[in-house]
Amino acid sequence: MPIICPTCSYSRSWKVRRSKRKCKRCRHEFSSNIYPVKDIRSTIDDWQKCIHVFIRQRAILTISEETGIGHCRIASMVDILRQCMASDIPGRFNGPVELDETYIGGQRKNKCLHIRRIKAKRGHGTDKLPIMGVFDRSSKQVYIEVMPVKLSMYHLFRITNSKLIHGTLIITDGYKMYRGFKARGFKHEYVDHDGGEYVRGEIHTNNIEGFWGILKRKLGCIGGVRRNRLHLFVAEIVWNFNHKSLTYQQQEKLLLDLVIKFGGLIQ
Ligand SMILES: [Zn+2]
Questions:
Q1: Ranked by mean pLDDT, which of 29-43, 193-207, 245-259 comes out on top?
Q2: What would the DSSP string read from start to end of 143-184?
């Protein structure tokens, strides 16, 4: 492929310095490196090296050590990688699906005294960040949404209408907000945890509860995430969960394609 001048798009140029070329027609000096993502001066080779270590869930400093790229650039690359993972969401589920929510926030014993004095609420009344999750039993995929505000019917039906095929069987716990699915054209079954019922044949929410276990353990290892960046870390864990049947080589290739697609979007 000939290298084209960015100013006059002439195809003939010569090499001047390490990675610089000079156009034969307009004498403009330009870099022969191609950067897939604008504003980050990393070539495809750099991205490949970064993804190779990142996919094995290493810290930023470890990636920097193993690739020889500075840790500041690696930090912005890893941020882009997480945004790519967040943009790669599975298609509509055709169920049966399990739907549940959880709350992410620090432990109460670590908080200030004036917060600890207020009576604690567990579950739906808490001031932690709500996360809504859907697990599809046929494809074994998970779709997660982090809510910046308190859960409401509006959010719930926006997720079910956009992510589920009409008439899907939805299995939930006994929370009262979930009782409106039947009126909106979905089949609905629930297990009443308050009544001591957790499994009734095929009706249970154990798969999504198992995913909450994975999510919370992994977030605990990261050790402190800001509220406005939580969705990126959750997206990474969800992406790894949804692609766990692929080998590392296949995952690397997928992620590199996502980066090139992501760069094409913002340029
Ligand atoms: Zn030129």
A1: 245-259
A2: EEEE-SS---HHHHHHHHHHHB-TT-EEEEES-GGGGGGGGG
